[in-house]
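[Meeting: bench + compute handoff]

Bench side (C.D.) handed over the final construct sequence. Compute side (W.E.) agreed to return the predicted structure before the next meeting so the bench team could plan truncations. Sequence as handed over:
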Amino acid sequence: MGRGELMGRLFCCGDTHQDIDIHKLNSTNFKIGNELTKEDILIILGDWGAIWSGDCRDDKMLNWWKNRNWTTFVVLGNHCNYNAIKKLPTVEKFFGPVWNPCESVFIAQTGNIYNLNGKTCLVINGADSQDKNLRKESISWWPEEQITEEDIQKAKFNLKRYSNKVDYLLTHTGGVNVCASLGFKPTISDVRLSQILNTFQYDYHYLGHYHIDKIIDNKTRIFYNDIKEIY
């Protein structure tokens, strides 16, 4: 699908971790952000973190995001308060269901295909935390972070409506091949994600999670501090 006359721009960046890595989006580091409008979309590839406490303590960060010039589209990772997020209102946006925590911020629901400024994007949320022993279940990590078989089956079902072809695959974790290229042992979520990777066509796979900026191959790119205009 081509870019419409009034269609905005599309950007990707990696984890922001509440306010820990938010500096990458300040007016100095992301200068072009000063020129954007709500027609433009910034994709956060997991570990957004603005909803962490699930109460008024999150208001400061949500207000920060609400007041950005652009619209924010969030992919969920492993450091996310799934309990709080699943209580948010669901609305229809970008041709699919999303959670809507505040004005101009939308959180993807896994396995759905969204149209972001003319580009079809399959989102598969989740990843496996490697530091669960240092965290407390449902306080600082949530079991819902793991990609499930149901998530994969939902994605496959939705892909049929698009003839098994999308422009972008948006995830947090990378799959077995990405782990191998980085020298990491794949987790359950990586194995499950890889079950679907060769079953459909996509032009690019963008992901976060690994706290590096790295091009894996001509289709796969990891984001952390880099912010790239992808369309």
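W.E. noted at the follow-up: Helices lie at 59-66, 82-85, 149-160, 176-182, 188-197. C.D. will use this when planning the next construct.
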